[in-house]
Amino acid sequence: MNHVPREDITRLTQIPNIGKAIAADLRLLGIERPDQLIGEDPFMLYRDLSRVTGKPCDPCVIDVFMAAVHFMDGGAARPWWTFTDERKQMLSRRDTDRE
Hints:
single chain, mainly alpha, 0% strand
């Protein structure tokens, strides 16, 4: 993935995996700058987006949020779909913990 180095990122759409639509979703959540994603919980971002829009979003949005937060937290840029298995495992663990 060829992207702008993290320290030079000033716009949400410069973050790997973030296009215009997801950038607009993040703005709905009050996130205007890439550095605001540092330390965020992708699952909470997803929950809040579903609440703000009034409908559940596609679960793949969690993967995109995971990829963006991972990158802004200092991780390597990875395609969003590489987070799918991790998301499913984390959701499975959360469901098991509730039982």
